[in-house]
Amino acid sequence: MPTLYGLGVGPGDPELITLKALKILKEVPVIVAPKSRQEGESLALEIVVRVLGPAVADKETVELHFPMTRDPARLAGAWREAAGTVAGHLRRGRDVAFVTLGDPTFYSTYFLLLEELIRLVPEARMVTVPAVTSVSACAARLNLPLVQGDESLAVVSGARDPEALRRVIEDFDCTVVLKVGRHLPRLMETLKDLGLEERAVLATRCGLPGERLGSPAGPGEADYLSLLVVKK
Amino acid sequence: MPTLYGLGVGPGDPELITLKALKILKEVPVIVAPKSRQEGESLALEIVVRVLGPAVADKETVELHFPMTRDPARLAGAWREAAGTVAGHLRRGRDVAFVTLGDPTFYSTYFLLLEELIRLVPEARMVTVPAVTSVSACAARLNLPLVQGDESLAVVSGARDPEALRRVIEDFDCTVVLKVGRHLPRLMETLKDLGLEERAVLATRCGLPGERLGSPAGPGEADYLSLLVVKK
Fold first, then answer.
1. Radius of gyration of chain B (CA)
2. Who contacts A104 (Cβ-Cβ below 8 Å, separation ≥6)?
3. How far is B142 from chain A (nearest CA, A)?
4. What's the ipTM?
5. Do B150 and A179 lie within an 8 Å CB cutoff?
6. A164, B171: Cβ pair inside 8 Å?
7. Among B214, B179, B172, B213, which residue's Cα sits nearest to residue B194?
């Protein structure tokens, strides 16, 4: 029975891949990676190339192109096409690893593919391989305990509305804001209001070349891979 | 300069350790693991033994014993003693890996040790090595996306009071309750009130021998390593 692996390669440092993910990458004949203008998505394949070395030449690597759009119809069409490509491999009995930066259960597009494939190739085995998240990697770089004892952690998107975000930061011991990007000035205002500016750390490209860690200095500093940690 | 590594071995499956953690375990002369009646803590050393194989015999392994108490004075005393032992190794120029089950930034005792050692051996380098959390591992086993798109995730302890927990579950797309244990009946009542019983999955010993995944059937099912996932 062919297997589709939803395989996390970790947050960026190739050494933060798991033994299990590396073993599966060595075994599967087909490696599929999404590719779009969002940088995170092509980084996954770069990590695969680095950990496999020359052995990657023996694999069929498939890059799936997705439009950078929020138009559901265009996106759904792109996903159906991608799922069709992957289904073709599975039906020919070939195991496929769909690779994602970070952890596949954590803000990955993998589950869009999975849902489609459960319909297309119901006989395939679907195995999700967990990985280190960017949140853990960033906290580790800062030697910062996200949560201890009975503390609580919230993870939210930068797109969250300011009033809701304010309540979250008030209620939780630690709040991590992902996908900061253009929302940074608004987030900083909320933190200033709460008197928590000094407790916030902005991490951009954590564990990747060009890493920046420190106080969120102002607008223009954050990108799609930036995250903000507020530990009280 | 000697280095203290706060090293996560992942959620339980030895294959879910990272390449980086394995490399460091092979290099360091001293491996320190906390040991108490809480099972999670001795599991970390078991995983080390499994991934290192016979090479573990060349290491000095130190088990630190902590009393199972909430008495701050007794705990602080135990931590000071443990830190003294680790400091002794670092002062003799020997690198030390303090191993934790799961990720060290995520509900680990490692940072209690770190704080003490920064005082005792300020010249030592402190490096935290992130790992796969039990939360990611459990979601992966269930093929469940914790969060997608702009969704939000809350992680709370089972000790959280019912009213606060209720608000969290209402406000977040996904809530994970850790350290469920004896709090399960109370948690189930809250879920029943919210009509979310069917959306909850209880995971006990996820990825470990004796794993149980499924609907939270009733009292007595959960232990210290159980977690409850509520995805709306």
1. 19
2. A6, A7, A8, A110, A111, A128, A129, A130, A131, B140, B145
3. 8
4. 0.94
5. yes
6. yes
7. B172
Asked whether the beta carbons of residue A168 and residue B155 sit closer than 8 angstroms, the reply is: no
Distance CA A143, CA A140 (A): 5
Residue numbers of A between 172 and 201 with CB closer than 8 Å to B: 172, 179
pTM of the model: 0.95
- For tokens 């797109």, what's the residue? A159
Structure tokens at B112: 């209690």
The chain A residue lying nearest B180, using CA atoms, is: A150
By Cβ distance, the residue of B129, B136, B151 closest to A133 is B136
Task: Answer yes or no: do A160 and B145 touch at CB < 8 A.
Answer: no
Query: Nearest residue of B to residue A180 by CA position?
Result: B150
In which element (H, E) is residue B40 found? helix B39-52
Which residues lie below 8 Å from residue A100, measured CB to CB, with a gap of 6+?
Answer: A6, A7, A8, A9, A34, A44, A108, A109, A110, A131
Q: Is the pLDDT of residue A58 over 60?
A: yes
Strands, E, within B38-169: which ranges?
Answer: 60-65, 96-100, 125-129, 153-157
As given in the structure block, the two tokens for residue A211 are 């890493």
Contacts of A154 in chain B (CB under 8 A): 152-155, 172
- Among the ranges A76-80, A155-159, A182-186, which has the highest mean pLDDT value? A155-159
Alpha-carbon span B140 to A108, nearest angstrom:
12
Q: Which of B110, B97, B101 is nearest to B131 (CA)?
A: B101
Minimum-distance CB partner of A140 among B14, B130, B150: B130
B12 interfacial to chain A (CB closer than 8 Å)? no
- Is the Cβ–Cβ distance between A202 and A144 less than 8 Å? no
Per-residue pLDDT of chain B (232 residues; tens, 9 = 90+): 899 999 999 999 999 999 999 999 999 999 999 886 655 557 899 999 999 999 999 999 999 887 777 788 888 888 889 999 999 999 999 999 999 999 999 999 899 899 999 999 999 999 999 999 999 999 999 999 999 999 999 999 999 988 999 999 999 999 999 999 889 999 999 999 999 988 999 999 887 888 888 887 655 577 878 999 999 9
Give the SS3 label for residue A29. coil
Interface test with B, best of A19, A127, A169 (most B CBs within 10 A): A19
A16 vs B20, B105, B147: nearest CB = B20
Q: Length of chain B in residues, anyone? A: 232
Q: Does the distance separating the beta carbons of B105 and A145 come in below 8 Å? A: yes
User: Taking CB atoms and an 8 Å limit, are A133 and B133 in contact across chains?
Assistant: yes
User: Position A231: which residue type?
Assistant: K
